[in-house]
Amino acid sequence: MEEPRLKKDYREKVVPELLKRFNYKNKMQVPKILKIVLNMGIGRDNKDAKAIESAQKELTLIAGQKAVLTKAKKSIAGFNVRKGNIVGVMVTLRGNRMYEFLDRLITVALPRVRDFEGLPGKSTDGKGSYTIGIKEHVIFPEVDYNTIYKVQGLNVTIVTSAKTPEETISLLREIGLPIREE
């Protein structure tokens, strides 16, 4: 199997650039992407079996890997949630699948977002993670608009080994994520 394009770009272009920019002594100090977590909340449809099945099927199509149902860890009366209720679906991507998904996100899905002006530069948690909220999961070409049950939102969390927000943003910009200057 051939190495993903983004993985090759990371090794050949991103690592030398970040070595220079942050004055690392060793290329092993350069931050890298560890995993990508896709999460789709079910919300009020947690009793609707068709909505749950549809969300799981569509997230599986987007990720290329089977989505797992997530259950509530404790009851929350204000949200009408009982412990053990299905509250969402998620997928964790690593390795080549992660790079393939990131490539599709950057080159195909994000350009399909209406009035897209780049991703916010403040979506990092300070510990190396960057989260993107996508309002409509239909921006991915794998999802057939005519067969979906309901348009849903999607969270994409990119977990890196970066220690500071500056390193995280620099790494993601170098890889090609369209993060706007704040």
Number of domains: 1
CATH topology: 50s Ribosomal Protein L5, Chain: A
The best one-word shape is globular
CATH superfamily: Ribosomal protein L5
In the sheet with the most strands, the strands line up as: 2-3-1-5-4
State the end-to-end distance.
39 Å
Q: Quickly give the CATH architecture.
A: 2-Layer Sandwich
Q: Could you explain how this protein is built, in words?
A:
The protein has 182 residues and is an alpha+beta fold. It has four helices and five strands. It is globular, with a radius of gyration of 18 Å. Helix content is 32%, strand content 19%. The mean pLDDT is 85. It has a single domain, classed as 50s Ribosomal Protein L5, Chain: A, CATH 3.30.1440.10.
SSE blueprint and pairings:
Blueprint: H1 5-22, E1 33-41, H2 49-63, E2 68-71, E3 86-93, H3 95-109, E4 129-134, E5 154-160, H4 165-175
Antiparallel strand pairs: 1-3, 1-5, 2-3, 4-5
Helix pairs in contact: 1-4
Q: Could you write a compact summary of the structure shown?
A:
The protein has 182 residues and is of the alpha+beta class. 32% of the residues lie in helices and 19% in strands.
Descriptive key words:
alpha+beta; 50s Ribosomal Protein L5, Chain: A; 4 helices; five-stranded antiparallel sheet; 182 residues
